[in-house]
Structure prediction request, 89 residues.
Amino acid sequence: MNREILEILACPIDKFHPLDLFECKTENEKIVEGVLYCKKCSRFFPIIDEIPIMLPDDLRDKKRDLEFLQACIEQLPQKIVKEALPWHL
Ligand SMILES: [Zn+2]
Prediction:
């Protein structure tokens, strides 16, 4: 994912913009793993293999989301790892 895409991304739940970006792994200026965070509804959206996964809650994969948080726990702030919606560690 390129950082420029942040300018057009909005939260799928409430359309809030801009989203906060937290980078966990980068390669050649691209974000391979990270999190997009919506301040308005406190939701996080994972970036996995360069793809931001921005789905409504009922289509999310809870197991994958939690494994992702666990893997990136060192790079992410507490508000995401321990408090973000729709679930956290
Ligand atoms: Zn939101």
Q: What stands out?
A: The beta strands are 20-27, 30-37, 44-48, 51-52.
